[in-house]
Amino acid sequence: MTSQGSRAHGPLTDLAGCRILISNDDGIHAHGLAVLERLALTLSKDVWVVAPAHERSGAGHSLTIHEPLRPVKLGERRYSLSGTPTDCVMVAINHILKDHPPDLVLSGINHGSNLGEDVHYSGTIAAAMEGTLLGVRAIALSQAFSELTKAPWETAEHYGPDLIRDVCALPWTKDVLVSINFPDCAVGDVRGVKPSRQGRHKTGEDFLLRHDPRGRPYLWIGEQRYVDRDVEGDLKAVDDRYISLTPLNVDLTHQPTLDALVKKYQKQ
Predict the structure, then answer these.
(1) What is the mean pLDDT of residues 207-215?
(2) What is the pTM of this model?
(3) Where are the domains of the chain?
(4) CATH for 5-201+228-266?
């Protein structure tokens, strides 16, 4: 997260004077969104909520272009939208808040981690990414949990405010968003904060074939199969009860390959 001239956000140290937009992919009624709203209000009193009317987990960075979007005002600074997380941030910044855009976008707190390849499918990450593409500093927050216990929301709520302050106080490039993943443990069991690279695990390699009551077959996407436990990766960090901080770049260009292609075709 280093400055690159005009393409960099400067340090944002006075969050109390900032406008914060929050969204998610679990929907306007999600418990994690309520936690994030409480958390955001400890940072600033100017907090706006624009979130999907229904759960849109796994929506990725998708836009609604074949049907209308319907914003519904639920309170003074609170809206639901009949669309995806990306739609929510786009509508918030370009329509609802167009006369006074936010200084910071917070997305989440997701019910479940967003690690490894999850970032390509996650609506939580997509909402933060859309903020980044629209020139606003953005952070995605996710709370890991196991199937046998409820999500330890108090962990994200406890550590979230200081982490957001710390991250915002750093300069970073405008093409970068930050993904924060809280481990599945109580507040006192968190071992620390670990800046981590994006790890590797894959959803969709295991399909479960089943039959409905009429005997017709259907498929259900199974669990992740391959997990990269690299010591520097986000999966290992959260597994080891660290809070993972991962900067993600919206520019997907692979520079070494591009350089090789340029070199090859310059010779022709």
Answers:
(1) 84
(2) 0.90
(3) 5-201+228-266
(4) 3.40.1210.10
